[in-house]
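Friendly challenge for the regulars: who can give me the structure tokens for this chain first? No prize, just bragging rights.
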Amino acid sequence: MMIQEKATLNWASILTWTILIFVLIFTVAPLLFMITSSLMTRMQILRMPYSWIPETFHVENYVKAIKGNDGQWMFARNLLNSLIVSLTVAITTVLIASITGYGIAKFKFRGRNIIFMLIMATMMIPFEAIMIPLYMVATSLKLQDSYAGLIVPFLVSAFGVFQMRQYLTTFPTEYLDAARVDGMGEFRIFWRIVFPNCAPVIATLSILSFRGQWDNLLWPLLVTQSEKMKTVPLYISKFAEEKLTDEGAMMAVAVLASIPMFILFGFLSKYFIGGSAVYESRKG
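First reply, four minutes later:
Bragging rights claimed.
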């Protein structure tokens, strides 16, 4: 019996590791292709079978990616625009969503559930349905071709409110009551007790909000006109449309555009591991 159980466990382990290895390969292979091809010439990239190690390292692909096909060196400015917009939206989303989620989760007032359902109902509306009215509002307020036009429509997220509310419902109310007994005000309770203990959900929401704006192509395409106010997705789109663009330079642009996301995820990833254990212990 013991031998059969051990054999079953071994086969289960082998199957699990096989699946994980295949998932790892399918996840890492595109990234590895992007990095290696960014250091190759067009002919080396198109050669079959593909060589995963470049024969010679063509660093000029990165120079061309930053310089642009038009030679205007707009990548740095567009990268700065994306950083400003993405960071601002991530910060405001976390702050507003955490305050709203805390109020809905921990304060009992008339109409609380209705307000929460109305917030959730906005998630059912696709952005494409409100895109044109939103653009008309931005035009009437003269927010075109400005940071305000890129940031203001995304200051808060209904999904962020939902995520914070669901996490804070598991937050022990006893801590809040003890702080009130000690004479702490609600604002101080939030900043000193609640907010610091929301690191896992804050990290998750920050990454999702940052990535959402970093990859946003449609709205900046509508609201910006000048090259100086465009973002990285627009730069990549224009770079790919140029007739003189080669595949190596395109991969170099993709690598450069991916670096901020890797840095952010690497910086915040430690909160997922520690935070998931805390969340599971609260549920238990």
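The chain has two domains: 2-62, 70-283. The longest helix spans residues 247-283. Your move, everyone else.
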